[in-house]
Amino acid sequence: MTTKYRYKLYYGGRAGGKSYAFADSLLFLGRMNKLLIACMREVQESIKDSVHKLLSDRIDWYELSDYKVLQNKIINAVTGTEFIFKGLSDKSAQNIKSLEGVDIVWLEEAQKISKQSWDVLNPTIRKTGSEIWISMNRETENDPVWQAVALHPDERTLVVKVNYTDNPFCPEEMTYLAEKCKNENPRDYEHIWLGAPLSQGNNRLIAQNCVYRAAKNTVFAENSPLIIGLDVARFGDDNTVFCFRRGRKCLRFESYHGLDNVEVANRATFFIKTYNPVRLFIDAGGVGGGVADILFDRGFKRIVKPVMFASKAIADDRYHNRRAEMWDELREWLCGEQNVSLPDDDSLFSELCSVGKKYDSRGRLLLEEKDEIKKRLGRSPDKADALALTFAAPVYETGMQTEIPDNSWESIFRTETGNSNNEW
Ligand SMILES: Nc1ncnc2c1ncn2[C@@H]1O[C@H](COP(=O)(O)OP(=O)(O)OP(=O)(O)O)[C@@H](O)[C@H]1O
Ligand SMILES: [Mg+2]
Question: Which end of the chain is more exposed for a tag (fewer CB within 10 A), N or C?
Answer without folding.
Answer: N
